[in-house]
Design brief:
197 residues, alpha/beta, Rossmann fold, seven-stranded mixed sheet, two-stranded antiparallel sheet, 9 strands, 36% helix
Length: 197
């Protein structure tokens, strides 16, 4: 059975676009895009792909009702700049995944999102960074890690350059992680993820 996916975003939606472009390989169908920002360009990307959209701000009940109505199996946070409520996490335990622009647990927690992460990485003089896909739990960026990819950034000069290189990794591992979920190849034991071939 094809799993139904909802993507939550707050901005441009480049990760969403990659998922739309690779949808045939995901073994899942994006049925909904939710944003907490009316002017998020990701909503336009969704509309162009004929995917239903919704703008919902600080209304967990409305989000839950919509997810249930659409029979969503997996929620993907792709640049969603809001804290997911414990209510939603409980309803979709191990069914919400997030893409984070560093190698967790480094450069994580409150305030560590988007360009802020890359500024921290740049300020510390880090030579290797990367991207992480993880399940969402009640701790910020603390859920079980599904997949990570690293890159050398020792040749880069600015946080913006780092952001672009890491974004390329996000575009690779997010679809892979979603595909593994949709194919029921992910197993969680004692807080650790194993992906079966």
């Amino acid at each position: 059975m094809v799993k139904k996916i909802a993507v939550f975003l707050s901005g441009g939606g480049s990760n969403l676009q990659v998922l739309i472009d690779k949808q045939e390989n995901l073994h899942g169908q994006i049925v909904l895009v939710v944003s907490n920002r009316q002017n998020a360009y990701g909503l336009t990307r969704a509309e162009k792909a004929n995917i239903e959209t919704a703008v919902i701000v600080n209304d967990d009940q409305a989000i839950l009702e919509l997810l249930r109505k659409k029979e969503v199996n997996l929620v993907v946070l792709a640049g969603y700049l809001a804290i997911v409520s414990s209510h939603l996490i409980a309803a979709y335990q191990n069914k919400i995944i997030n893409i984070h622009p560093s190698l967790l647990p480094s450069f994580s927690g409150r305030g560590a999102y988007g360009i802020h992460v890359h500024k921290q990485v740049w300020q510390r003089g880090v030579k290797i960074t990367g991207a992480t896909v993880h399940f969402v739990n009640e701790g910020i960026d603390e859920g079980p890690i599904i997949m990570q990819e690293a890159c050398d950034i020792s040749d880069l000069q600015t946080p913006e350059e780092i952001q672009q290189r890491v974004l390329q990794l996000e575009h690779v591992i997010l679809p892979k992680a979603i595909q593994a979920f949709c194919e029921n190849r992910i197993e969680i034991k004692k807080g650790k993820v194993r992906i079966h071939e």
